[in-house]
C-alpha cells in the first residue's frame, strides 16, 4: 500500500493507541504522525506483518517503536513478564543505531504513568559489557523490550536462562542490511529462536534491495508499505534533500574538501571517506591543517568515527558531534554512519567518493534533509568515466544536480602542498599510513558493484598517489594499469628516505638498525658483483692470452719443422750437387738405401730393446 502524503492526526487512526503513549508523543513534540507512521502503526499493532520502504528521515523508528510498545502493553495486561521472559526484539546492524533506538524508547517510557506496570528496555551490543553482565542485568531488571545488534543478540538469546516463547514482535531495522551476507546467518538463527506466532516488521529506505530474502524471516503474507518523496518524479530521496554532485580532479579532492569545509556556510557536516584508515589519517591531517590556519575549537571542531573504534568512544564521539557548540562541526566517517543515524541539524553531507554499494548512496545522503528540514548532499565524482554514475542513479529514481566545483587558488594550492608535506615529514609513520590509505582506496575501488563505471584500469594512479602525498607507487598488482611505470615505482625524489625518521624512538632505532644492515647488505652485494665482474674480465683476458700462446707455440713448432725439412732438403741437395754426375746412375740405389734405412730404424724402434742395451 502507498502511504498518505501528508502528516496525520493521532486521533484519526482506525486503531486507538494507548492514551499515555499518544500523550507522550505530543509531549515529545510529535503532534501529528508522519505518513509512514499513519500507515504502519495500525497494521503492525494488530495482526499484520509489514515490509516498510520509506525515504530516509521519514519517521520509521516511531513507526515500529509504537507498535512494539502497544504489543508489550497488551501482553503485560494479560499477564506479567516473569524473570527470563521478554515481549519484543528490535535488531539493527550497528551499535550506534541500536543505541539511538533505545534512546527513543527510553524517552517515551520515561513518560509512562508511575502507577501502572512499568515497561523497560535493554540494549544488547558488543564491547560495552560482557554477555554475562547483559544476562545478569536482564534477570535483575526484567526488561520486556530488547534492542541490539545481531551478534550480541544471538549470543544472549542462546543462553539457557533466556526464554523466548513470549516474544510477540520482531523488528528488523535496516532490514536489507540485516538480510545481507554479513548478517544473514545471525539474523536467521535469531528468527529460529523466536516463536512462529509473532508479528514481524522489516524497515528500510531501500528494502527492495533485499528481494525475496524478506521471506527468510518467516513472514508469509506481509503488507508492503511504500513512502516515496512527494515530488513529481517520485524521487527515492525526500523532497527536503538537495542531491548534487561536482566533478573534480582526483588530485585536488582534499583541497576542495578543505575549501568546502572552511568557506561553505553550513553548521554540521558529515564527510564520508572510503576506509577506516582514511578517516584516521585525514582526520589527523585536517586537525593539523586547521590549527595551522589558526582556527580554534569554537570556530570549527573535527570528529572522527569508524568501525575499528571501540563502542564506547564511538558513542561518545556521536554525542559530542550532536551536541557540538562550535560554529562549524565536521564528522569524518565511513559507512558505519551511513544508515539510520538521526543527528539533529546536519545540513551538509559530503561524499569524497560514491559508496561501493549503490543503495548506501541514499542512506549516506539521508543523514541530512530529515523530517522535512532542508539539507544538501554533495558527491564528488572524478572527471571522466565516473560522471556516468549520475545516469546510473537516474535509472534508480535518484536525480542529482551538477554544482560548481570550488576554485582552489594557486596560493591556497601552494599553502596546502607546503603544509600537508611538512605535516607528513614530521613523522615517517604518517607516510606509512598514507601508503596504507592509498592501497585501501584501490581495494575499495575494486569493490564497486557498478564495476562498469568504476574501473580499476581507468583510475588515475599518479593523481591518486599525489593526493595521498606519496612519492613512489607501492608494489601492487594494479600497477600493471600504470602507463610508463617509473623505475622501482619512484615518480618524485623530493624525500630523502635515509633521513626520513619516525617520531617514536624505538621505531626509529629499529629503522636505523635495519637501514645499516640494509646498507651493509647492499655494499656486500655491490662488492660481490664487482668481484664477479672483475673475475669475468680477468678470466676472459687470460683465456685470450692462453689462446695466443698456443697459437704462437703451434706457429713456432711449424716453423721449426719447416726449418728442419728445409735443412734436410738443403743437405740432400748439397749432397746431390756434389755427386751430380752419379745422380742418374745411383738414384735407384739411393731410394733403395733410404728404404732400407727406414726399415732398420723402424725395426730398431719396434724391438725396443736395442737402445736400452746401450
Ligand atoms: N511524527 C513526527 N513528527 C515530527 N517529527 C518526527 C515524527 N516522527 C519522527 N520524527 C523525527 O524525524 C526524524 C527522522 O526520524 P527517523 O530517524 O525515525 O527516520 P527514518 O525514517 O528511520 O530514517 P532512516 O531511513 O535514515 O533511518 C527524527 O528526528 C524524528 O525525531
Helix and strand arrangement:
Layout: E1 8-9, H1 19-27, E2 32-33, H2 35-45, E3 50-54, H3 60-78, E4 88-91, H4 95-109, E5 121-124, H5 131-141, E6 145-148, H6 150-157, E7 169-173, H7 175-178, H8 181-193, E8 199-204, E9 223-227, E10 241-248, H9 253-263, E11 268-272, H10 276-292, E12 300-305, H11 311-322, E13 328-333, E14 348-351, H12 358-365, E15 375-382, H13 389-395, E16 401-402, H14 410-425, H15 428-446, H16 461-467, H17 505-578, H18 580-607, H19 609-612
Parallel strand pairs: 3-8, 3-9, 4-6, 4-7, 5-6, 7-8, 10-15, 10-16, 11-13, 11-14, 12-13, 14-15
Antiparallel strand pairs: 1-2
Helix pairs in contact: 2-3, 6-8, 10-14
Residues 30, 32-34, 37, 54, 56-62, 205, 340, 342, 366, 370-371 line the site of adenosine-5'-triphosphate (ATP).
Amino acid at each position: 500500500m502507498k502511504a498518505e502524503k501528508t502528516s496525520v492526526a493521532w486521533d484519526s487512526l482506525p486503531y486507538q493507541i494507548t492514551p499515555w503513549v499518544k500523550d507522550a508523543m505530543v509531549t515529545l513534540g510529535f503532534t501529528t504522525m508522519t505518513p509512514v507512521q499513519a500507515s504502519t502503526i495500525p497494521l503492525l499493532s494488530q495482526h499484520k506483518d509489514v515490509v516498510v520502504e520509506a525515504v530516509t528521515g521519514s519517521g520509521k523508528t516511531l513507526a515500529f517503536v509504537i507498535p512494539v510498545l502497544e504489543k508489550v502493553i497488551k501482553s503485560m495486561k494479560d499477564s506479567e513478564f516473569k524473570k527470563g521472559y521478554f515481549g519484543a526484539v528490535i535488531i539493527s546492524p550497528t551499535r550506534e543505531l541500536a543505541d539511538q533506538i533505545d534512546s527513543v524508547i527510553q524517552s517515551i517510557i520515561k513518560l509512562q504513568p508511575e502507577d501502572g506496570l512499568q515497561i523497560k528496555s535493554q540494549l544488547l551490543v558488543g564491547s560495552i559489557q560482557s554477555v554475562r553482565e547483559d544476562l545478569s542485568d536482564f534477570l535483575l531488571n526484567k526488561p520486556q523490550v530488547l534492542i541490539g545488534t545481531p551478534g550480541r543478540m544471538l549470543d544472549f538469546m542462546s543462553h539457557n536462562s533466556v526464554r523466548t516463547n513470549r516474544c510477540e514482535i520482531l523488528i528488523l531495522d535496516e532490514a536489507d542490511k540485516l538480510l545481507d551476507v554479513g548478517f544473514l546467518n545471525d539474523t536467521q538463527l535469531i528468527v529460529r529462536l523466536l516463536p512462529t506466532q509473532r508479528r514481524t516488521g522489516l524497515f528500510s529506505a531501500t528494502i527492495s534491495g533485499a528481494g525475496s530474502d524478506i521471506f527468510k524471516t518467516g513472514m508469509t503474507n506481509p503488507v508492503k508499505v511504500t513512502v516515496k518523496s512527494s515530488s513529481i518524479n517520485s524521487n527515492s530521496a525526500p523532497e527536503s534533500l538537495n542531491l548534487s554532485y561536482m566533478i573534480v580532479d582526483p588530485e585536488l579532492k582534499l583541497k576542495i574538501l578543505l575549501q568546502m569545509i572552511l568557506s561553505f556556510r553550513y553548521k554540521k557536516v558529515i564527510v564520508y571517506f572510503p576506509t577506516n584508515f582514511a578517516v584516521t589519517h585525514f582526520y589527523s591531517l585536517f586537525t593539523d591543517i586547521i590549527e595551522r590556519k589558526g582556527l580554534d575549537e569554537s570556530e570549527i571542531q573535527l570528529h572522527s568515527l569508524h568501525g575499528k573504534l571501540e563502542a564506547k568512544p564511538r558513542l561518545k564521539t556521536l554525542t559530542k558531534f550532536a551536541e557540538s557548540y562550535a560554529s562549524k562541526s565536521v564528522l569524518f566517517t565511513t559507512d558505519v554512519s551511513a544508515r539510520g543515524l538521526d543527528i539533529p541539524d546536519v545540513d551538509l553531507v559530503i561524499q569524497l567518493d560514491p559508496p561501493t554499494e549503490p543503495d548506501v548512496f541514499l542512506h549516506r545522503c539521508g543523514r541530512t534533509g530529515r523530517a522535512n528540514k532542508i539539507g544538501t548532499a554533495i558527491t564528488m565524482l572524478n572527471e571522466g568515466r565516473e560522471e556516468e554514475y549520475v545516469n546510473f542513479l537516474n535509472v534508480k529514481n535518484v536525480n542529482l544536480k551538477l554544482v560548481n566545483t570550488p576554485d582552489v587558488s594557486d596560493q591556497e594550492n601552494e599553502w596546502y602542498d607546503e603544509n600537508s608535506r611538512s605535516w607528513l615529514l614530521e613523522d615517517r609513520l604518517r607516510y606509512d599510513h598514507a601508503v596504507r590509505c592509498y592501497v585501501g582506496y584501490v581495494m575499495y575501488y575494486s569493490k564497486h558493484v557498478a564495476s562498469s563505471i568504476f574501473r580499476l584500469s581507468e583510475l588515475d594512479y599518479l593523481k591518486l598517489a599525489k593526493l595521498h602525498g606519496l612519492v613512489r607507487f607501492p608494489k601492487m598488482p594494479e600497477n600493471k594499469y600504470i602507463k610508463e611505470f617509473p623505475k622501482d615505482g619512484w615518480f618524485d625524489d623530493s624525500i630523502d628516505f635515509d633521513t626520513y625518521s619516525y617520531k617514536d624512538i624505538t621505531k626509529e632505532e629499529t629503522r636505523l638498525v635495519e637501514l645499516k644492515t640494509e646498507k651493509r647488505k647492499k655494499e656486500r652485494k655491490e662488492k660481490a658483483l664487482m668481484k664477479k665482474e672483475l673475475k669475468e674480465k680477468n678470466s676472459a683476458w687470460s683465456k685470450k692470452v692462453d689462446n695466443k700462446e698456443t697459437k704462437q707455440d703451434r706457429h713456432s713448432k711449424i716453423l721449426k719443422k719447416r726449418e728442419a725439412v728445409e735443412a734436410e732438403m738443403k743437405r740432400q741437395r748439397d749432397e746431390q750437387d756434389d755427386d751430380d754426375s752419379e745422380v742418374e746412375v745411383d738414384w735407384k740405389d739411393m731410394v733403395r738405401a733410404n728404404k732400407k734405412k727406414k726399415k732398420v730404424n723402424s725395426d730398431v724402434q719396434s724391438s725396443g730393446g736395442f737402445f736400452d742395451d746401450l
